[in-house]
Structure formats: C-alpha cells, structure tokens
Amino acid sequence: PKAAPTDVRIRVLNSTAIALTWTRVHLDTIQGQLKEYRAYFWRDSSLLKNLWVSKKRQFVSFPGDRNRGTVSRLFPYSNYKLEMVVTNGRGDGPRSEVKEFPTPEGVPSSPRYLRIRQPNLEIINLEWDHPEHPNGIITGYTLRYQPFNGTRTGQAVVEHLSPNQTRFTLQRSDPISRYRFMLRARTQVGEGTALVEESPALLDE
C-alpha cells in the first residue's frame, strides 16, 4: 500500500482499553487486495517514577475495510504510543503519525508475598511486599483477618494501613486458634486482588 490511515483518534474507555477510529485509505492506493488495518502500539513509560517497562511493540489487527476498533489488555497508569498501517498480501503500507495517550489508574495486583511469623503464643508478625503492578498510586492496604478453629470461625477484623506500611503485629486474643489473613493493596480506583495466607498451627511443646 502507498498510503497510511489518517485522522487516527483515540478515546480511552477504561484503564486497560481504548477505542480507535481512523479515516480509511483510498482503495486505489492499496495496490492489491486490502487485508486489514493494523494498530502497532507500545508502552512508552509508566506514570509511576522509577518503574521499568518493556517497550516491546505489539499489534492488533482489524480485518477488512473498516474504520474503527478497540485495543485492550493495556497496562493502567502508563504512557502509550500508537501508529496505524493498512496491509495487503505483500505486507504493511506506510505508518500513520504516532499518537500518544495515557491510560488512567486501575486497581493493583496483589502484594508480592505475605509472610507470617509466630515468635510466641501472644503475637503474630506479618510482613509483605508491594504489588508487582501497582497500576496507579497505592493509597494503602486493607488487611482482614479472622481466627478459626476447625469449622468454627471468629469475628473478622479489618485494618486500613498506610501505603508505605509493610509490617503488622497482631496481639492474639486466642492462643489456640489459627488465623486467616487477606491482604489487598488499593489505589483511588479501588482494591486489587487479595493475597490469602493462614497462620501455621502451633505445635504443643
């Protein structure tokens, strides 16, 4: 093809998807059979400082003579670049001008790990690491825990912790029960997936 799609417009749908529209090329510039329109895109940077990103180019195909489509599975809270081509049986035509767009914040992935230590019968120490994909600015952590003993479960307690906190100490109310912990990170958009761990059973000396 001799021409590139023009007037490429991007509308952000959510933190991981955009809608695209473009002006189609004249059929006499294709020099063969029109196969598809193709959007090449890559993550240029994260909007969080010091977060390394892969700038690997990806593409989405829109078969046939059309002028709209969606691109999904993007990373939230990132700067992206995108350009479009039209293809025939021989390959890509020239590239359109590069468009830049940011994606909004999303909810974070779960914390990387949650470690439980029980130095004695009175306390349980928790330690965790921040999510691998914050997908925005972490505004805090939500820790929910509940004692259980066999099939009986006790009252659940919810703690709201600060964004830079990575440790918590629980004073046990009941030295016999085990505890189930659910830890989620959150951004202003909401809470991410929970990481669930249970305290090990205390063995009698």
From TrEMBL:
Q: List the InterPro entries hit by this protein, alphabetically.
A: FN3_dom, FN3_sf, Ig-like_fold, RTP_Phos/Ushers
User: What is the organism of origin for this protein?
Assistant: Hylia prasina (green hylia)
Q: Where is the composition biased (Basic and acidic residues)?
A: 92-102
Name this polypeptide is given: NFASC protein
Query: Would you say which domain of life the source belongs to?
Result: Eukaryota
Domain named Fibronectin type-III: which ranges? 4-106, 110-205
Gene Ontology cellular-component terms listed: membrane
Ranges for the region named Disordered are: 91-110
PROSITE patterns assigned to the protein according to its UniProt record, in alphabetical order = FN3 (PS50853)
Q: Which gene encodes it?
A: Nfasc
What SMART domains would the database entry show? FN3 (SM00060)
Q: PANTHER family in the record, alphabetically? A: CYTOKINE RECEPTOR (PTHR46957)
Q: What is the lineage of its organism?
A: Eukaryota, Metazoa, Chordata, Craniata, Vertebrata
- Entry's CDD domains? FN3 (cd00063)
